[in-house]
Amino acid sequence: MVDMRPGAKLSICIYCGSRSGDDPAFADAARAVGRAIGERGWRLVYGGGRVGLMGEVADAALAAGATVIGVIPRALMAREHGHRGLDELIVVDTMHERKRLMAEHSDAFIALPGGIGTFEELFEAWTWLQLGYHAKPVGLLNVAGYYDGLLSFLEQAVGRGFLSQAQRELLGVGTEAAALLDRLAAAASRSASGGDYREI
Ligand code: AMP
Question: What is the pTM of this model?
Answer without folding.
Answer: 0.93
